[in-house]
Sequence to fold (579 residues):
Amino acid sequence: MADDDPIAPSELEYVLLHFPDCLPSSASPLWVHEIDEGQEAEGDKLQGILSHAWEELLYTNPAKAFVVAARYGGPESNRYERAIEQLAPEDVSEIFGAQWRNIPGEHYQMIIIEMEQRGYYEEVLDFVIGHGRRERESFELTVDEFIQESPAEAFAYISQHREKIFAYIEKYQENLNKNMAICRVITRLKECLNGTEQEAAEILKAYERIDELHDDRGESDLKDILTEDALRAFPLRAELYQLCLERNDSFYWDIGRAMLCDDTMGEFPDEARVLAYEAGEEELLEQIEGGSLVPAYQSLVREAKEITRLVSRQYGIDLPKRVEVGGPTGSYASIKTRSAGSPNATEGKGNTPQEETANNGPGA
Amino acid sequence: MALELRVEQKLKLNQRLEQRLEQKQQLQLKLAQTLPEFAEGINFEDDDNLPLLQRSFPFMMYHEVSHPLHSKGIVTIPSPPPLPEGYHLIDGKPIPRTYLHHATEVGIDRSAYLVGTRNGLYTAETLVESYAAFVERVVRDTFETRRIPLEHPFVARLQAELEVHTEGANPSAEVVPVLDELNRRLSFPTPKDKEAYRFMVRAYRDIYQGTALSK
Fold:
C-alpha cells in the first residue's frame, strides 16, 4: 500500500464489514496480529488505517460500527461498549434488520438482551415477532419488562400491533395465551390508576398516545379501564378531563360525572359547574356553587342589578340592566349603557368611547 | 426506545402537567367571563381580596350610577375654587387638570352616599363602611402594590371625604383607621407641596358637603 495511494473510505468500510471468514480470527481487520517478520511496520500502518476507519464509522453509521465491533471484538470488547452508547432507535432497527446477517450467531441472544436492557423494547419485539424467534423466555421477559417500565408506551405498542402479536403467539408460543400481552398491560394500567403520581401520569400518556395513533380498539380498552368508580379515585382526573376537553372527546362527560360525586365535587367546583351547567342540572348547579368563586361574582352582579333597578325606578331614568365581571385595570368599576349604534357609549360623563378608558371609574 | 429519550419524554410530560395546573387556575375566571349572565353593561375589576371587593362594591355601584344622575341634572355639584398661584405643582407634577376632574368625582362620591341612603337597600353605616373599603383598596394599590400611580388630587379627595365622615354629630368609627393609614403613608418633599395638598382637601370638603340631589 503506497502512501500516495490512499484507500477510499467506502473500501475500508467494505474491508471492515466483509473481512474474509477463511482467515483466522487473529487476522481480524481491527486487531492485526501475526505479521511476517520484517513486515511489522506495514502491519502497524494497516492497524492504524483500519482503527481510524472504524472510529469514523462510529460517528457516520453507529449501526455498522456496532456490527463490526460485535463481529471482531465481541460483546466484551471496549469498541462494542462504545458503539452501543452511540445507537439511536433507528440504528437499533437497522442492526435488527439489514445488519443482522453480519453478526455471528453466537452473539444473537446477548445482543437481544442488551438492547432490551437499554429500553429498546419496541425494536426488540419487532425483531422477535418479525423473525418468528421461538425463545419463549426472551419474548415474555421483554413484554413484561416493557409493560413494567413504560406502561403507556407498552400499551400503545401492544394495542397497535395486537393482530401481529396474536399471530406470533399462536404460531411460535403455543403455551402462551394469545391475549397475554394486552391482558398484562391492561392489568398494569389498572395498577397505575391508583399508584404514584408518576404512575398515574402514565394513564394520561396512554390516552395521548392512543389518541395520536387513532387506535379505536386501544381507546375502547382504555375507557373500559377508566370506569366511573376508577375515575373517582384517580388523582389526575382533572388533568385527564382537560385533555379530553382539548381533544373535544365526549369521554370528558364520563370523567366529569366521576367528579360530580359527593366525595370529590368540592375539589373541582368549577369543572363540575361547567358539567352541571351543560347538563341543565339546576339543583346540582346550586349545590356546587358553594365552593366556587363564580357565585361570589354572581352575587355582586345581582347586587349591581338590584342597585341599578332601584335607582332607575326612583329617579325615572334608564340605567343598564346587564352587568359583567372584569374591567379595565385601575378603574375598579365603570358603568356603560347600550344604545342603538353605540354599543359601548359611556353614560353620564360626556366622554367619547376613546376617552372612556382614561376617565373610567371612581379611581381614574 | 433509548433511555435518554424516555427521560426527555418524562420531562415534557411534567411540563405539560404544570401547564395544565396553570390552566386550571385560570379556569375560574374564564368561566366567569363565558357564563351568559356576565354580559355587557357594567364592568368591575376582580380582586385577589374578595371580601374587600365585596365590601367596597355597594359604594362603587352607587358612585357609577351617580354619573348618569349628574349628567341628567339630578345631582348638583359646586364648582371648585381656582388653584392659587404657586399651587400648580406637587412633587414636581402638575395638578390643575386632575384637581378639576376629582372636584367632580367628589360630588359623585357624595351623590353615591345620598342616593344609597335614600333607596333603603343599605344603611348609611354600611355605605360608609363600603366607602372605607374602597379607600383601603386605593391605598393598597397606590402605596403597596403600586398598581396605580400616586395622584395627589385623588388622595386629597379621599382625605377630604374621610375627614367629613369623622366629624359632625355622628362620626363614623370605621373610617378613622383608614384615614390614619392614609396620613401615615403621605409625605411631601416641600412645605409648599403640603400647602397645595391641604388647599385641595379644603376645596373638596366644601364640594362634598355642598353636593345635593334635586329630587
